[in-house]
Automatic annotation (TrEMBL):
Keyword vocabulary terms for this entry: Lyase
GO molecular function, one term: (S)-2-(5-amino-1-(5-phospho-D-ribosyl)imidazole-4-carboxamido) succinate lyase (fumarate-forming) activity
Classification via InterPro entries: Fumarase/histidase_N, L-Aspartase-like
Name of this chain's protein: Adenylosuccinate lyase
A cellular component annotation (GO) from this entry: cytosol
GO biological process: 'de novo' AMP biosynthetic process
Keyword Nucleotidyltransferase tagged: no
Gene source species: Paramuricea clavata (Red gorgonian)
Classification lineage: Eukaryota, Metazoa, Cnidaria, Anthozoa, Octocorallia
Gene3D superfamilies (alphabetical): Fumarase/aspartase (Central domain), Fumarase/aspartase (N-terminal domain)
């Protein structure tokens, strides 16, 4: 099996340069496919509550294998089926043989795909927003500390006149 840590981060040239570890993990294969598995588990629990013939043993088996993803089997299944979701349905089924028949039961690919996208985007914003707030706070503090310092403006990559608060006066006259 491949080194599992390869699947713990999103792979892109930009990731290694600019992304935090937590954001890189948020968009990783492991996050995506464990989220798919959690969604299938939630679906099975809901279907059991609605009266479908799903056993506690099947639910337990799914719970115990959420993070056990064999990417080699997944790659083989995807090559064979030419469908990422169905490849992972069968990969999950391989490590949950008793639950294989109920994984993805009655669902469409959009169930896992769209919901996972929403979860990943929400989690990404939860990572980003506190950092953005901190950045705004620091920028505001810096601006207040240096508000009396004249600053040169640029136009077309050339020095221009100083930038100050006179634009506010000009705008208020125009209004």
């Amino acid at each position: 099996m491949d080194d599992p840590s390869v699947f713990d981060s999103y792979r892109s040239p930009l990731t290694s340069r600019y992304a935090s570890k937590e954001m890189s993990y948020n968009f990783s294969d492991n996050k995506k496919f464990t989220t798919w598995r959690k969604l299938w588990l939630y679906l099975a629990k809901a279907e059991k509550e609605l009266g479908l013939n799903i056993t506690d043993e099947q639910i337990s088996e799914m719970e115990n294998n959420i993070t056990k993803i064999d990417y080699k089997i997944a790659a083989e299944e995807e090559k064979k089926r030419r469908h990422d979701v169905m490849a992972h349905v069968h990969t999950f089924g391989a490590c949950c043989p008793r639950a294989a028949a109920i994984i993805h039961l009655g669902a469409t690919s959009c169930y896992v795909g769209d919901n996972t996208d929403l979860i990943v985007l929400k989690d990404g914003l939860n990572i980003l927003l506190p950092k953005l707030a901190r950045c705004c706070e620091r920028l505001s503090k810096f601006a207040n500390e240096h508000k009396s310092l004249p600053t040169l403006g640029f136009t077309h990559f050339q020095l221009a006149s100083t930038v100050n608060n006179s634009w506010q006066e000009s705008m208020s006259v125009d209004i």
